[in-house]
């Protein structure tokens, strides 16, 4: 019994590792070129951030459901957004929308410190437990209204938003350092359900906004969620 159980666990671990290798190769084929980003994806065990029967799909390149009606983003989108952030190892990064904690864990491999905000306490508590288990000690998390950012810790070198805003959130943009970058999905005006990913770079006298690609995210909602 014990030997058989150990053999199954070993087979499962090998399959997950093989899936991770296939995913990294697929990301390369899809145009992800930043070696630091690919290495971060490879180091973070995505299976830790998904639940139940979805563990077997941890390294499939698609979004998966998590608690509170939210999702863990498609790995390609995580890699793409991270690459477009151009994160340096000395930087301070704000993430809006902790979710499962996977995106924060990837960012934590690349920068000095990640500050992450989540409106669902259940999601935040689970994410923090994962960070502790995996030894990611450079992530600071809190429950809050992500659209308001984290003024006490501003300014940030980089900001990433993992929920779609009706328009570019200026309150967040104002928490960027000059030269800082924010990557955020926003609704497409006049297109029901349409969203696009944009990159905003802050300058002394304004900001430059670049449209990237169509995406599909849960909406950015004001306030802290009431949970039963």
Overview features:
9 strands; Rossmann fold; two-stranded antiparallel ribbon; seven-stranded mixed beta sheet; 32% helix; single chain; 228 residues; alpha/beta
- Output the helix-strand order: HHEEHEHEHEEHEEE
Oligomer: single chain
Task: Label the structural class.
Answer: alpha/beta
Distance between the first and last residues' Cα: 41 Å
Strand order of the largest sheet: 5-4-3-6-7-8-9
The radius of gyration is 18 Å
How many β-strand runs?
9
What average pLDDT do the residues reach? 93
CATH class of the domain at 62-214: Alpha Beta
- Describe the biggest sheet? 7 strands, mixed
Second rung of CATH, namely the architecture of the domain at 62-214:
3-Layer(aba) Sandwich
The CATH homologous superfamily of the domain at 62-214: Vaccinia Virus protein VP39
Q: Helicity level, as a percent range?
A: 25-40%
What is the CATH T-level topology of the domain at 62-214? Rossmann fold
Number of helices: 6
Topology overview:
Elements (H helix, E strand, L loop, with lengths): L1 H28 L5 H9 L20 E2 L5 E2 L2 H11 L6 E5 L5 H7 L4 E6 L2 H14 L4 E5 L12 E6 L8 H4 L2 E12 L7 E9 L2 E9 L14
Parallel strand pairs: 3-4, 3-6, 4-5, 6-7
Antiparallel strand pairs: 1-2, 7-8, 8-9
Walk me through what this model shows.
The protein is α/β, with parallel strands linked by helices and 228 residues long. It has a domain at 62-214: Rossmann fold, CATH 3.40.50. The protein has 6 helices and 9 strands. The protein has helices spanning 2-29, 35-43, 75-85, 102-108, 121-134, 170-173, and strands spanning 64-65, 71-72, 92-96, 113-118, 139-143, 156-161, 176-187, 195-203, 206-214. A 7-stranded mixed sheet has the order 5-4-3-6-7-8-9, covered by helices on one side. Strands 1-2 form a two-stranded antiparallel ribbon. The longest helix is centred in the N-terminal third of the chain and has 28 residues, at 2-29. The mean pLDDT is 93.
């Amino acid at each position: 019994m014990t030997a058989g159980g150990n053999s199954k666990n070993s087979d499962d671990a090998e399959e997950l590792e093989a899936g991770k290798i296939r995913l990294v190769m697929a990301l390369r084929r899809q145009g992800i070129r930043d070696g630091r980003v690919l290495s971060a994806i490879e180091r973070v065990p995505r299976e830790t951030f998904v639940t139940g029967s979805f563990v077997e799909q941890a390294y499939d390149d698609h979004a998966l459901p998590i608690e509170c009606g939210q999702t863990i983003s498609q790995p390609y989108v995580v890699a793409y957004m991270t690459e477009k952030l151009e994160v340096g190892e000395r930087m301070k990064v704000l993430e809006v929308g902790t979710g499962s904690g996977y995106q924060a864990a990837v960012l934590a491999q690349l920068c000095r410190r990640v500050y992450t905000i989540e409106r669902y306490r259940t999601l935040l508590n689970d994410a923090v437990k994962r960070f502790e288990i995996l030894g990611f000690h450079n992530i600071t998390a809190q429950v809050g209204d992500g659209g308001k950012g984290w003024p006490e810790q501003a300014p940030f070198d980089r900001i990433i938003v993992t929920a779609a805003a009706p328009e570019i959130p200026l309150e967040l943009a104002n928490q960027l350092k000059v030269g800082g970058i924010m990557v955020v999905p926003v609704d497409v005006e006049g297109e029901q359900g349409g969203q696009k990913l944009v990159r905003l770079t802050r300058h002394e006298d304004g900001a430059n906004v670049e449209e990237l690609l169509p995406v599909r995210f849960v909406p950015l909602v004001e306030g802290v969620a009431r949970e039963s």
